[in-house]
Design a protein that fits this description.
37% strand, 13-stranded mixed sheet, 215 residues, 6 helices, alpha+beta
Length: 215
C-alpha cells in the first residue's frame, strides 16, 4: 500500500469517479454538501481531506431503531465523558482499489478535550462519513456545524474489488427534535441511562414516548 496524493486524485465529477473507480488511475469523489443541498469545495491539501461537523448526529449506531437527529441551531453538544456519532458535511465516494484512514485533529483535543476514534474507510464506500467523537473532559462541549473534527488520508491497494461492499446502516432516518424528542434522545444516551439506572431510564422513556403521541 502507498499513500495517495489526494490533491491529484480528487474529483468533484461523479461521472469521472464512476468511470475510473476500478482502474489504476481511479479518482476519489469528495465534496462538501450544505444543509440546503448546496455543493462546495472541501478543505484539503496534498495528502489530507479535512472532515467537518455536518447536519446530523446520533447517540449510537447500534441496535434497532437507530436514527440520526438533526443538528439544532447549528451546534452539537457532547456531555462529559460521553461519545456520540457525528455525520460529516463531506460526501465522498471511494474507489474499489482505495481505502481511507481517519485521524484525529490534535487542535480539537488540546482546545476542547474532544477526539475522534481512528477508523478506516472501506473501498466502495459512498456517502457522508460517520465519526465517533469522545469528550474526555469533565465539562460539556459544543461543536459548531462546519467545525473541523478529523482528517482522512487515502491509501492505494494492491487489489481491486469486483463488487461494492455492503454497509450496515448506510441509510438511517433523520429525526427533528421537538422538546419531548430532545428529552428522549438525552435519556437514551448510555451515559445518562447508567447514571439514572435502568428502571428510572425506562420509566422516563415511557413517559416521554407517551408525550410524543400527544404532540
Amino acid at each position: 500500500m502507498s499513500v495517495i496524493s489526494f490533491r491529484s486524485r480528487r474529483t468533484a465529477d461523479e461521472d469521472a469517479y464512476a468511470r475510473t473507480k476500478r482502474s489504476a488511475s481511479s479518482l476519489i469523489y469528495a465534496v462538501r454538501r450544505g444543509t440546503d443541498g448546496t455543493i462546495s469545495e472541501p478543505h484539503f491539501d496534498e495528502l489530507e481531506l479535512e472532515l467537518t461537523v455536518g447536519s446530523r448526529w446520533a447517540p449510537t449506531m447500534g441496535g434497532e431503531g437507530a436514527r440520526f437527529y438533526a443538528t439544532r441551531e447549528a451546534k452539537i453538544r457532547i456531555g462529559p465523558k460521553e461519545s456520540i456519532v457525528v455525520e460529516t458535511a463531506e460526501l465522498i465516494c471511494v474507489p474499489y482499489n482505495v481505502m481511507g484512514v481517519v485521524f484525529p485533529k490534535g487542535s480539537l483535543f488540546r482546545e476542547q478535550g474532544v477526539h475522534p476514534l481512528t477508523a478506516k474507510i472501506d473501498p466502495s464506500w459512498q456517502g457522508h462519513l460517520r465519526v465517533l467523537l469522545r469528550n474526555s473532559g469533565d465539562t460539556p462541549r459544543e461543536l459548531k456545524q462546519g467545525s473541523p473534527i478529523a482528517s482522512v488520508v487515502f491509501w492505494s491497494l494492491d487489489m481491486t474489488l469486483h463488487n461494492p461492499m455492503r454497509f450496515k446502516d448506510a441509510e438511517l432516518p433523520t429525526v427533528r427534535l421537538s422538546k419531548w424528542r430532545r428529552m428522549l434522545a438525552l435519556v437514551e444516551r448510555p451515559a445518562i441511562a447508567m447514571v439514572l439506572g435502568s428502571s428510572v431510564a425506562a420509566a422516563l422513556t415511557t413517559y416521554v414516548t407517551i408525550k410524543f403521541a400527544g404532540g
